[in-house]
Amino acid sequence: MNIVLFGPPGAGKGTQSALLVELLKMRHISTGDLLREAVKNQTALGKKAKAFMDAGQLVPEEVFQASKGKSFILDGFPRTVVQAEALGNLMARLSLKIGKAVFLEVPRATLLRRLTGRRVCSSCGAVYHVDSKPTAHAGICDVCGGQVTQRKDDHEDVIATRLEAYDLSTSPLKRYFAEKGLFVEVDGLGETADVYARIVKQLV
Questions:
Q1: Is 28 in contact with 16 (CB distance < 8 Å)?
Q2: Using CA atoms, how far apart are residues 59 and 31, in angstroms rounded to an integer?
Q3: Which residues contact residue 134 at a Cβ distance below 8 angstroms, ignoring those fewer than 6 apart?
Q4: pLDDT score, position 79
Q5: What's the rounded Cα separation, in Å, for the pair 111 and 163?
Q6: Is position 50 annotated as part of the catalytic site?
Q7: Of 79, 108, 113, 174, which is the active-site residue?
Q8: In the annotation, is 151 catalytic?
Q9: Nearest Cα to 99, choosing from 202, 178, 3?
Q10: Which one-letter DSSP state was computed for residue 107?
Q11: Which residue of the set 70, 97, 133, 151 is catalytic?
């Protein structure tokens, strides 16, 4: 089953996608990963995907064709009803379909705590969290010894603005998938394994 996995920043989409890829052998299609691939490796497909997304268009068909028969997870896309409609047209043209649109629901206070607690190494990019994954020594990266700091966009006022913008853009998307009979909401609170089990229950 092909799924759209969406939810606000900090909901745990990346973590759950990784589990679905590992345990169910699904393919993870992340717009963020495609952009990073284009910048880092300068691959032909990555650069083409970047050009499409920079222009506000869908990712190219080759991204889906590259799944080679595997079920896939769309993470970070679509973000608007217009994109969702275009995605539906593309899927139909490729004889594919979205089976479920899974929304990870997490309370605003929890999202703020998760995001404001994130810390990143300025040298190697390793990610930590003051509560769930602190460094062994305050402010020092366990991996390379670099300085670990809070990113500017992880400050509470910035995150609050991002979450408000997300809510506004996502509400119509929820309605769109609900009208298609594809929308399911999953509680994103609790242990990673528990959230994963809730998602899988919706896919069977």
A1: no
A2: 8
A3: 128
A4: 82
A5: 9
A6: no
A7: 79
A8: yes
A9: 3
A10: -
A11: 151
Identity at 111, one-letter amino acid code: L
Instruction: Determine the pLDDT at residue 90.
Output: 84
Low-confidence winner among 30-34, 126-130, 140-144, 147-151 (lowest mean pLDDT)? 30-34
Beta strands in the chain (DSSP E): 3-6, 27-30, 72-75, 100-105, 118-121, 127-129, 148-149, 183-187
Most confident by average pLDDT, 77-81, 164-168, 180-184: 180-184
Contacts 24+ apart (CB under 8 A), 28-36: 28/72, 28/73, 28/75, 29/59, 29/63, 29/64, 29/67, 29/72, 29/73, 29/74, 29/75, 29/77, 30/75, 30/76, 31/59, 31/75, 31/76, 31/77, 32/75, 32/76, 34/59, 34/63
Q: Which of the two residues, 45 and 190, has the higher pLDDT score?
A: 190
With 70 as the cut, is the pLDDT of residue 32 above it? no
Active site annotation includes 13: yes
Express each pLDDT in 59-73 by its tens digit: 667 777 666 678 899
> What pLDDT digit, counting tens, does each position of 143-159 carry?
999 999 998 888 999 99
162 is known as an active-site residue:
yes
The single-letter code of the amino acid at 140 is I
Domains and CATH numbers, the chain: 3-108+155-203 (3.40.50.300)
